[in-house]
Design a protein that fits this description.
CATH topology of the largest domain: Hypothetical protein af1432
Largest sheet: 2 strands, antiparallel
Radius of gyration: 22 Å
Oligomer: single chain
CATH architecture of the largest domain: Orthogonal Bundle
């Protein structure tokens, strides 16, 4: 039986906004863990959709849920081990006894935050945290997405470090080997050119920097190198362009006119909302399709902002119909820059699902919807909790998503104030969100308690 979502779990997820990546390298900007996790899960979703071709709906749902939970579990593990660099972690994994001791410590640290949510969810986390190897299609997708999103970051910092950092050749060589090992996955061939050029030509001696596994063969490494450096003259494949667009959301800071500590990006916010809505889906007893749809709806809900930038609510409401004008512009840009290129290259399954998450057929990503008789139908929370809480209806919670979107913004404001940033804008936003949601109910669940718990 699902338990409760506690303040500590919400803050635990948010803490990735403080975790700096590549902290021993020179960087143009800080690269944060929560942003990397968002990009990783976007890539994982793409690989899931393409791997799902030919699978039944039930098989695809199982794969997607395993990817969603595996990604969340990996993030929770990473939040505890914080500054342990990947090379050290992989050395620890080579000794089963050492790794089990590390895993037990991680679980002990995470349990107060995670266990109250749901006992079965906790047990699945324990199984993944204590396994030294993960051999399943979902685990391979997550490993490929992890390598891709890390390599994408590596491209950003390489130009600043190549001249003096002797680790760079080894890191680049290892990325090529790891990506080569996953290059057979559907979609990877089209994603890899998005890393071209992976900086620093010429491979140095290979060391186990990012993975304990060697590439399956030298030929695999060569093939991956050809994919990364294909000598293209034409445009990138649509999947690569989409992955790059999503990656750019880490450059967009939320609350852009207001100083905050920590700053949060649109990309990190999307991942935070995705986790919150998944937890709340467990809490309300949502079916598998509903849980999966809710997570990915959260993960993509601000995707249009890569095309329009983050526009704060007061501006959207500054005059009548402005919000609708912005929505129309977002839809036209989504069609021109994302949907049409993907459809042109045959990725209709990606476009259709992304459109469902973003509310293209219903009008808003915050609409409660199901698919009935092949059509998207708007409904309400009570109906989703009742007759539509079944995988066959492909249900999606818009109201729950909206609550979690507000909750994430609320925690961003709360944390900034706790860290000494007390601008009028932040204080007014915090108290407005608290007043509007402090008594809010979702069915028989008192959502307002999550807001009033932050004093």
């Amino acid at each position: 039986m699902p338990g409760n979502i506690r303040k500590s779990l919400l803050q635990f997820i948010f803490s990735g906004s403080y975790m700096k990546r590549w902290n021993d390298k020179l960087r143009y900007m800080e690269l944060m863990e929560i942003d990397k996790q968002a990009h990783k899960m976007i890539i994982a979703w793409l690989l899931c959709r393409l791997a799902g071709r030919g699978k039944s709906r039930a098989e695809l749902l199982c794969l997607e849920e395993e990817v969603v939970e595996g990604g969340i579990f990996d993030y929770l593990f990473r939040l505890v081990i914080t500054d342990i660099k990947p090379p050290i972690l992989y050395r620890i994994k080579e000794n089963p006894d050492h790794y089990q001791r590390l895993a037990r410590w991680v679980l002990a640290e995470a349990k107060p935050h995670v266990h109250p949510l749901d006992g079965e969810f906790w047990e699945r986390f324990v199984r993944r945290a204590t396994a030294t190897e993960h051999q399943s299609p979902a685990s391979e997708i997550l490993a490929a997405a992890h390598a891709y999103s890390s390599a994408w970051e590596f491209r950003l910092l390489s130009p600043l470090n190549n001249a003096f950092d002797d680790e760079m050749p080894d890191i680049r060589s290892n990325f090529i080997k790891i990506l080569a090992a996953h290059s057979h996955l559907p979609g990877m061939e089209e994603l890899l050119p998005g890393l071209d050029p992976l900086p620093l030509q010429g491979d140095g001696p290979a060391t186990r920097v990012f993975s304990p596994c060697d590439a399956s063969s030298a030929a695999d490494t060569a093939r991956c190198g050809d994919a990364l450096f294909p000598g293209r003259s034409g445009p990138l494949p649509a999947l690569s362009r989409f992955a790059n667009l999503c990656g750019q959301l880490r450059f967009q800071k939320r609350w852009s006119q207001t100083p905050r500590i920590p700053e949060t990006s649109v990309m990190g916010h999307m991942f935070m909302v995705a986790c919150y809505v998944y937890f709340l889906s467990i809490r309300i007893g949502a079916c598998r399709a509903r849980r999966v749809n809710n997570f990915f709806s959260g993960l993509f809900h601000d995707l249009p902002e890569v095309l329009t930038r983050d526009i704060i609510s007061p501006v959207k409401k500054s005059f009548q119909d402005l919000g609708q004008l912005i929505r129309e512009y977002e839809n036209s840009e989504l069609e021109r820059r994302i949907f049409a290129p993907l459809e042109k290259e045959g990725h209709t399954c990606v476009v259709a699902r992304l459109g469902y998450y973003l509310g293209s057929d219903s009008g808003s990503e915050f609409d409660d919807t199901v698919i009935e008789d092949g059509r998207v139908v708007k409904t309400d929370f009570d109906a989703l909790q009742g007759r539509y809480n079944q995988d066959e209806y492909d249900p999606k919670d818009g109201e729950v998503l909206k609550i979690c979107d507000i909750l994430a913004a609320y925690i961003e404001a709360y944390t900034a104030m706790r860290n000494g940033i007390t601008s009028d804008h932040i204080q007014q936003a915090f108290w407005r969100m608290r007043e509007q949601n402090g008594k809010r109910m979702l069915g028989n669940i008192h959502i307002g308690a999550l807001f009033t718990d932050f004093d």
